[in-house]
Amino acid sequence: MSYSVGQIAGFTGVTVRTLHFYDRSGLLTPGERSPAGYRLYGDADLARLRRILFYRELGFPLEEIEAILDDPGDSVLDRLRERSRQLTEQVARLQRLITMAESAIEVRQAGVRLSPEERVEVFGDIEADLSYATDTDLKWGHLEGQRRSMARAAAHTKEDWRQLMAESAAWRRRLIAAFDEREPADGERSRALAEEHRQHIGRWFTPCSPETHRRIADDYVEDPRAFALVVPAAEQRPGLAGFLRAAAHANATHSNAARPRLRDAS
């Protein structure tokens, strides 16, 4: 059975212009001509075209496709193996680019306006997974406090972030020391560390009430990504997140209990 150029184009989605090019280059020359001189493609031509499209989909150049079709020997298997290797490398590269793009999106949504080099310099291991900040923004972004926090973070300079991280590192060392020394989570030392952390949030991001701090500390236990933004994985100990949460809860309770006495004293 014979098919016109238009019919072949309709079957395969290949443009008439491309079919003419294949004919001129010798890649696919129709086996017949109509009495008027028009190209006519037989079943064998259609089968060859489908093989051309298959190799084109795999990314082979036309010159190599022609060699494959004209010499279908053992070299075809070698060429396919090599192409598979190349595609595997491309997939890995694209996956790395996707990861980089997603990380950039997360950083932008988290409100950190630093270059990648500056982020490594300032944050080090702390910036392990900013997807938590992204999820938090999606969850609480409608709240004024969250919007204010993101706006303040976006306004921080490199030196602001450097000072912020230095304060956080110093506090973190004292927190870990208290935990390692088995300090009671509801003791004065632990509550003071929790209060220092609460004030740190208020100073650098948004006002943080004891109750808000209690909710933030709950996240440290419920979501490892949250705690990793406070204590890098390499410095964490089993139970440390729970210790900080208990200290924050104890501090909130102590603060609430102290308020009436402050009013009475005044």
Automatic annotation (TrEMBL):
Record key words, sorted: Activator, Coiled coil, DNA-binding, Transcription, Transcription regulation
Lineage, opening ranks: Bacteria, Bacillati, Actinomycetota, Actinomycetes, Kitasatosporales
Range of residues in the leader sequence: none
Coiled coil: 77-104
Boundaries of every HTH merR-type domain copy: 1-71
Molecular function terms from GO: DNA binding; DNA-binding transcription factor activity
Name under which the protein is recorded: MerR family transcriptional regulator
Matches recorded under Pfam families: MerR_1, TipAS
